[in-house]
Amino acid sequence: MPIDAGSLHYAVGPALALAMLVLIALFLRWAFASGSSSGKPVRREELLTPVATLTRRESALALRAVLSDAGIRSTIREPAAHRADVLVFPEDLERARTLALSFGGR
User: Fold this and answer.
1) Considering the entire predicted model, what is its pTM?
2) Residue 79: what pLDDT?
3) Contact 62, 86 (CB under 8 A)
């Protein structure tokens, strides 16, 4: 079948493929968007709560070991020199505070 030189039917296939890619990209953006309704991203520090601030990293590691023995997940953040914060999840905060108060490694 002869093709008319002035026809744009050759552009229909690529245009349709591009439109489908855009639709897929929009769907994936919607499907994998965070569930936050406030629009601002949640910072990692907001998921954890500080339970103790110590002056030595070794003391913070010792407190983490005590918390770990009690089945409490924790981590250490060092925001400045000679300062180490021990962070726990909010559901473990009360138990962790009790253990931190009895911890003598300051």
Assistant:
1) 0.55
2) 84
3) no
